[in-house]
Amino acid sequence: MKSFHSSRFVPTRTGTSRAGSLGEEQLRRRFERVLLRLGERGTELAKRAFQTYYRVWGSRGGEISERWAAFQSDRIFHYPASRLADLHCASGGSTWAYLFEWTPPLVGSRLGACHGLDLPFVFGTLGHPLLRPVAGFTRGAYRLSRRMQQAWIGFARTASPAHGELPAWPAYTLERRSTMALGREDTLRDDPHERARGFWGEVIPNAKIPWAPAELPDGAAA
Question: CATH class for domain 16-203?
Answer without folding.
Answer: alpha beta
